[in-house]
Amino acid sequence: MANSHGQTSTPSAVVSASDVRKVYTQGSNPGRIARALGRSPPPTISAVDTVSLAVSQEEIVGLAGPSGSGKSTLLHILAGLEHPTEGTVTFQGTELAALSRRGRTRHRLEHIGIVFQHFHLLNSLSARANVALPLVELGVGKRQRRQRATDLLERVGLGDRITHRPGELSGGERQRVAIARALVTDPALVVADEPTGELDTDTGRTILQEFQRVAENRAVVLASHDRETLDICDRLLRLRDGSIADRTSRGEITG
Amino acid sequence: MRLRRLLARWVGLIAVGTRQTASRATATAKQRVWFSVLGVAVVIALLITVTGLGIGLATGATVADDDLDYWIVPETESPDSPLVATDDPQFGSVHETNTQIRQKEGVEGSTPVLSQVHQIEANGTTEFVLINGVINSPELDRVSGLDTDLLASNDPYYTADDWTGELVLSQSAAETLSVSAGDSVTVAGNSSFTVTAIDDHSRASGGVPSALLQLSEFQAVTGAGADDQADQFVVRADSPGVDEELAEIYPQSSVNTRGEMMASDTEDSELSLSLALTAFVVSLSIGTLFVVTTSGLKIVTDRQQLTVLSAMGVSVRSQLQLVGTQTLVMTAIGGVIGSIGGLLGIRAVNAVAVRTLTAEPIAVSHPLFVGYGVGVALLMGLLSLPILLAVARRVSGGVPQ
User: Mean pLDDT score of chain B, rounded to an integer?
Assistant: First the structure.
């Protein structure tokens, strides 16, 4: 199934976007009276403009581009956090637009792991409780939750920090907790927005190694403008003004 | 299986909400949480204090009176309380009957009581005093708020024709008459008695001037000795069910338990009930508005957290459950602290009252008040929930910044 940009939504694709557009309106549309009085519609901004891509399992796709190019918006659309104004997003054969609000929330819980630039951990909970939180929503028993969260924290090298609250952890440690939280439901797709944006170089490298491990049996999409981060990607899409300006494969990235 | 997952989710969310509140209260948002908790606590403390005052006023006459368990009173159509009505039928041969009562199983002590209001004159001052004639025994404690142990035991004038001339005065009576222990007073215009003791700890209700005399000596003064009369019996017992045996002693008498006397007094006190009810309604309203305001502001301030939960896939319903749990935990903590504060408030009110206004405590405290306070605090939380959940639903969702 080919689209207008020649991207193929193959059955093996974990997530695919087809001719996706996202337009934001600045302000509200005028009512009937306001229109009659000559008030013009509010200006719009096109954050993502007719973008298509497909991400397969065990693939890391990077989204690059300057600030305001639409990286984060495209990431949010792929994660089901935002609705595209036009186009479709399909996740393992299911069109996200067909899901209700509750359905999309459930979809994110079961299939998507999100790593935010600012970590967004709950400060009042320990590292382990933060990681285990999605499992609470899934109705997993306490013992299993604790075990799974502990295993993941040990895997990211935080076995001795499980009872620490985020305020007691360094930036790198918090990001690793966020990664563990994103992985705890064993999602098919992990999206990360500027995952090393707030970290020093050494810590950033450790985090990137973690992402490479994460991608062993799932799809990963990273949005970043950090060269070192983008170096770990199998494919790189450069966005400019909401459109894909350039596509680069792994050989071309490292070359 | 589905039920088990549902249960695990419910329990898990409650645990997370509780842990979050505890953590905020002790580490991450101490000031904000304690401000909310203390707001609830102050309201509950005031509620408990006013309720204690209301109940104290309602039951004061009985609570302050005696530590006795049963009252045997003649059956009467009079609307007056048997404790103060003086024109009602009286019991006869009360000394003999009292001996029979004391021999009954389960009875620790008893006395007939002859109650009349008479003038007592001392140092040129005359005052009407409620005088009770009693037979002291070691098992008795207080009658009409006065310690019976301050009289010689077993009514010596009746048993050995030995006139003691003893008279015990309440603090308020002694102050009014300006007498102290050892002074002579004249009772009912013609009989001289000696003040053997002034009961500093008298708990006579409302500071009414009162006095205790040996029963037979008081009968001699009032002319009730001919038929050995008294108005009622008070009985201390250590086992329930004694009332049935007591009821058989005089055919036309009724036996009241302490609970019946207190209930009767409470029912009669509409003012006190209104006071307690008003305190309840005002506290509930103010407390609920306070919880809505503080918790609502907290939700708006922490909306990023709800957005993150939503992005992670936590449903709106679960987010609302977290908000609800946190609100109820916060109000429950406020309820416990407030209830304890209220009990301390009652102590303070009583201390001030005894020092400045009355001779005895005016407010009542009871451990059940803690349960009452926590219950009202939780009710505040429950009443706040619809608004808080609406606020939470409104700010939830979107993309974390």
Answer: 83
